[in-house]
Amino acid sequence: xxxxxxxxxxxxxxxxxxxxxxxxxxxxxxxxxxxxxxxxxxxxxxxxxxxxxxxxxxxxxxxxxxxxxxxxxxxxxxxxxxxxxxxxxxxxxxxxxxxxxxxxxxxxxxxxxxxxxxxxxxxxxxxxxxxxxxxxxxxxxxxxxxxxxxxxxxxxxxxxxxxxxxxxxxxxxxxxxxxxxxxxxx
Length: 186
Fold this sequence. Notes:
Its main location: cytoplasm. It holds the Pfam family CS. By secondary structure, this protein is α+β, with helices and mostly antiparallel strands. The chain contains three helices and seven strands, in the order αβββββββαα. It has two domains: about 120 residues, Sandwich (Immunoglobulin-like), CATH 2.60.40; about 60 residues, no CATH class. It has a four-stranded antiparallel sheet, with no helix packed on it. A hairpin with a 6-residue loop joins β4 and β5. It is elongated and about 80 Å long. The protein starts with a helix and ends in a 12-residue tail after the last helix. The relative contact order is 0.13.
């Protein structure tokens, strides 16, 4: 990678970090779910909050005030598996903690709500996720998807395309009398 590419990546990462830090909430994700935290005054109780979670959107904040987080999810969630709690922190302050269970457990979200700035999901590495927590079949599927995404970004064949080319080469080697110069592979 060239140093100008490194500089561009660093500048993009810094811009992304600044955009995410400016949000009135913090969020993290792994391949299966998203967790959002919102700081709230320490004197509030759960009944003082307004949290509405649907399959495709969220609205969260203090009753009587503009929502801190409001908008449409990039992808649907399982409402019955999603929760929110009000937690008291060690310093006496409180935090609204929202857990969202993704319907599609095979893709990263670029943002919690579509109106928020995006993060570059292609830079997410398995170490950032709980890839090790997945069963072996799901894990290998996620790793294959990530490999194929990187291959596409570099203009290289995906694992499936590579497999087809290898089968064709093997067939050509076994049948040298056949001409494959104009063969289209799909």
